Amino acid sequence: MIFEPFERFSASEFRVKFAASRWEREGAYALRRQVFCEEQGLFEQDDRDAVDDYAITLVALSMLGVAADQVVGTVRIHEDEPGLWRGSRLAVAREYRRIGAIGATLIRLAVSSAHAMGCRTFLAHVQAQNAPLFEQMNWETMAEVELHGRPHVKMRADLDFYPPCHTPEIGYVALRKAA
Question: Cα–Cα–Cα angle for 149, 49, 80, nearest 5°?
């Protein structure tokens, strides 16, 4: 009998939701370190800051059937003042960036869940190369700025395109784009 080599499993479905367990939060922090410290060199050792003490962490989980396998994307949101929310630290694992739906679904849940919690304005500082994705998702540019030595764009989400999501602990499903 001849056995074919086992092909690496590649998830086709991703659950995007609020991080609810310790392993999800730790996976999100590890992914942020990988992206912002190791790949991009924006921070030396760790990108965590005081905002992490009160921000809500969202995660994208690759799914093995009904079981979550690993954190492949993350973003955090927080309320700066009543009605003013911000998103930051959007990161997707390198091997999952070409899927296309993960980053967009994280953005959608970030804004929609904040909208459900009373958000009237949602802002983010977006790395300049990622601004076109946000523009496609009904965000407007407010200003060009430099953060951490890199060009960023201050952007605002058009809340009319983000209906409130009242179940962020369940979140959304993102599917792999067809080839």
Answer: 95
- The answer to the question of residue 108 being in a domain is yes
> What pLDDT sits at residue 178?
52
Which structural domain, as residue segments, surrounds residue 103? 13-175
In tens, the pLDDT along 57-93 reads: 999 998 876 677 899 999 999 999 999 999 999 999 9
CATH of the domain at 125: 3.40.630.30
pTM of the model: 0.90
Q: Which amino acid is at 55?
A: A
The DSSP-derived string for 82-135 is TTEEEEEEEEE-GGGGGGSHHHHHHHHHHHHHHHHTT-SEEEEEEEGGGHHHHH
How many domains, the chain? 1
